[in-house]
Amino acid sequence: MNVCDIQVMKPLLAQHGFHFSKAKGQNFLIAPWVPQSIAEQAGVDEAAGVLEIGPGIGSLTQQLCLRAKKVCAVELDERLEPILDLTVGEFDNLEIIWNDVLRLDLPALVKGEFQGLRPMACANLPYYITSPILTALLEADCFASVTVMVQKEVAQRIAAAPGSEDYSAFSVFCQYYAEPKLLFEVPASCFLPQPKVTSAVVQLQVRRNRDWGLSDESVFFRTVRASFAMRRKKLSNGLASGFPELGKTGAAQVIENAGFDPNVRGETLGIPEFVRLANEIVKWREK
Q: What is the per-residue pLDDT for 1?
């Protein structure tokens, strides 16, 4: 069943009395090239075990099941159960988990379901919950790669370079865990209903070796958040606000000890620079 065919999709949804939920950010694909391209460019093959978040009516699920050894699709909306029975029920390498992905123990799921396989995550993510889901996938530290379709602006932010307009604390977070690559854009016309924005597919190859030389990971992320809290202002202002114990004098001293210009701005620093800065804060606090 070609669920991307709007002439198939609309009667199928009507038959089951299904109405799109804005609260759940539901937009279903009506362009078959999109799920095909996601599955292909994600590198899904017979050695892969794939976690899909939000299968919807199964357009991407079908393509994943045709390629992967095992697919676990996590869906929150149980109204979709009879529809998925029709669209993907034929696949014996598919397990559907009716739950909120943010409530799952992802490392335990991967260990139990994808033993001996290369674990991957693929998803057309709802815009409203993109950041929490990506955060959970990366912090779980159990996937070889994460390939997701998100709002174009979010994809650009994930892959942004230091000093660019799109660079943010979320850029640093994602790049700390993985190497991002923008794959392709997806016009709004590829969805039903049409969103008001363009989407893009981004792949994050998870770093297997994250030896950044950090003294304290929690201080690192706190440093990053503080550095972006006052964008376009001097880094010392953000650090003094994010670390009240430093004060302006301590913040200036830490910046000097890290080897930076006193007028440096946080949005110009890359991960190695944030590591140096965080390590200096740790030293200062241990005095």
A: 86
